[in-house]
Amino acid sequence: MENPSLISVLFATSKVSEHLIKPLGHHQLLLVLLELSLLLLVARGMGEIMRRINLPPVVGELLAGVVLGPSLFGLLFPNLHDHIFPENQQQSDLLSVISWLGVLCLLIVTGLETDLKLIIRKGKTALLISLGGIIVPFVTGFGLGWFLPETFLADPNKRLVFSLFIATAMSISAVPVIAKVLMDLNLIRRDIGQVTLAAGMTDDTIGWILLSVVSGLASSGKFDFGTVFRSVSAAILFLAIAFTIGRTIVDQILRWVDDKVGGVTASLSVLLVLSFSAAALTQHLGLEAALGAFVVGILAGQSRRFNSEAGHTLEIITAGFLAPIFFASAGLKVNLLSLLVPQTLIFGLIVLTVACVGKFTGAYIGSRVGGLSHWEGIAMGSGMNARGAMEIVVATIGLSLGVLNPQMYSIIVMVAIVTSVMSPPLLRWSLSKVTIGEEEAQRLELEKLASRSFIKQIQRVLIPTRGGANIQLAAQLVGYIAQQNPLDVTLFYAESDKQPPSKARQTATAVKDTATQEAFTAVAEEMQLPDESNLQTKTESGHSKVAAIINEASKGYDLIVLGASEQTRSKDALFNLLVDQVIQEAPCATMVVKSHLTEAQGESCRIPQQPLKNILVPTVGTEYSKNAIEVASVIAAATGASVTIVNVINLPQIEYILYERRSFNPMKDIASDLLEQQAVIGRSLGAEVKTCILKGTSPETEILKFAENEGFDLIILGSNIRMVTGRVFFGHRVDAILNRSHCPVAVITAP
């Protein structure tokens, strides 16, 4: 007799197996890998060809899809084309998912590059351009849809819905294409580039709302005010929350990840998680997923704790893989052969003309009303004219809802491709006529300098402290830097894992807690950080104090600030054993401050605020010297002090008259040029900079004599680390200045 319980279990198992999701088929995986390889090869190849003929690569990437589509590849090798790119919904969906990843990543990168302050400053102009770029093409597109022959309508009884779809398609702009063009042309940081992005995103946001309204209308067959209200409300609410509460949330998440994990991989992962989550939210709200990704990109770019290297990594992945796949797959949908039918060709050209003229005219009028020049208006019209894949999305939705027939679908996709191909050369040509204003030129030059600047890259500062005079003075200097360059500062108290005997452990713990709090309080009060900066404290232990400091420093800090404690100095160390070892093992730049204050003040006594009126920076023209000049200039800009950059011409021990006459003057000219070049760096950071040339047989002696005679309050040295018999060695000159100076000395090193 059969066991009924066994039969029921087997029956249940068979029912479950019927509903198991099958893994991706062997042939499906083979095809998608083949499609990706072919699309990437042709897209990148044609992109490089376009680059060589002075066109943006995005043009070649868009045309790659047309070449691989039914227009060329399908015409020449129909069987092979149908085998690689079959008309199969599941296979098409696999490629679409990767294409959408390209869209989202491209918009994340665009968001990271977006200057929100500049957009806000240009907000009125961007809004006027956007309104002009929507209203005019929407009206002309609606009129076009109303008068097109019925042969282009899927359902002649839905003329109103058809006209609204055409109007929406004419109004949309392709922010991914615009962004890629601006990146390719190196224009994304220009005022015109930022305004174009702002106008494009506003344009698309309104366009997505229009699309959701028209899609709802097509589905229901009647005008639904509820759909309109929900779409508009969702967009406004999302943007309002994102740029208020969302800004803080994103920043805090990035801070937490940076503190707890750190590194490029962690920053990149959290950026993608936040972006895809926001994209899912905007998609759920009936808006487009691209809006959420773009907004998170902006918010992450505004956070000081986002790792810029992570953004650069994502940009490389996007430009080298995801974006070319996206642009090429968009071109796959175009069948130019269907457009060769005389009636379709004629009306296709009419649609293209109306699309270009309407968008260009609207954007130009908006630009002029917004205060832009004639050529800036032409550039704006050229840039906003790119429709790209967003218009293809509109066409695809219209086709799936039964509003568009295959003829009209091909025409709209053709418009998307042609306008995207037209836009880059027109934008390049029109922008060549635009003169850069003085304000914009200064901003771009400052950004260029900032991208290569040592001090501008410093955002996170670690200050190991036990509260001595040297670290208190160092804290004062960090506070001055923070006034010009907002910082995230961590005060760090390092302990060794070695435990005292059990009887003394409780007393030692109480003493340690008191000492820690005193050390933190002393340094925090000396620093006086502005509101824009952030201060936190940490106490950690390791197998040694050095290990604890290095372990914390490896979590993404840009600068370690140390005090050189005279009381604990060893004869085998430049500063002391702990400081020397930290400098040797530091994963980032370091600044060591030696105050030269009297030892009577002790390690726990507060020092008065040290007045700074004159700062001296010796230079030999190296990158290390430039770093020191930048630090000095930022401190000077905050305190009102002046910076003197000095170069010493090292003469031989015996000065011959012949040497003096023939060799000194050329050396003086070289030194003068060097000083002036480095003075420009200091002045660009807001400091009053002077230059001076000294000469002598002992540069360190001349520097010390000059510093004392002229009454300098601080000497800042830039140096590289040299290892000599296990101790830190900056060179005899730096050692001499550190030990014999009458005033405080700070030494800046970079890894």
Task: List descriptors.
751 residues, 3 domains, Na+/H+ antiporter like fold, 28 helices, Rossmann fold, alpha/beta
Descriptive overview:
The structure is a single chain. This protein has 751 residues and is an alpha/beta fold. It folds into 3 domains: 26-83 and 90-448, Na+/H+ antiporter like fold; 452-497 and 512-610, HUPs (Rossmann fold, 3-Layer(aba) Sandwich); 611-751, 3-Layer(aba) Sandwich (Rossmann fold). The protein has 28 helices and 12 strands. It has helices at 4-18, 26-52, 57-68, 73-76, 78-84, 89-113, 116-121, 123-147, 159-171, 175-184, 191-220, 225-260, 264-284, 289-302, 308-331, 342-369, 374-384, 388-400, 406-431, 438-451, 469-484, 502-527, 545-553, 577-585, 623-639, 657-684, 699-710, 732-740; strands at residues 460-464, 488-496, 534-542, 559-563, 589-594, 614-618, 642-650, 688-696, 714-718, 722-724, 727-729, 745-749. The protein has a 10-stranded mixed sheet, with helices on both faces. A two-stranded antiparallel sheet has the order 10-11. Helix 11 (191-220) crosses helix 17 (374-384) and helix 27 (699-710) runs parallel beside helix 28 (732-740). The chain is elongated, with a radius of gyration of 33 Å. The N and C termini lie far apart (81 Å). Residues 503-511 and 599-603 have low confidence and may be disordered.
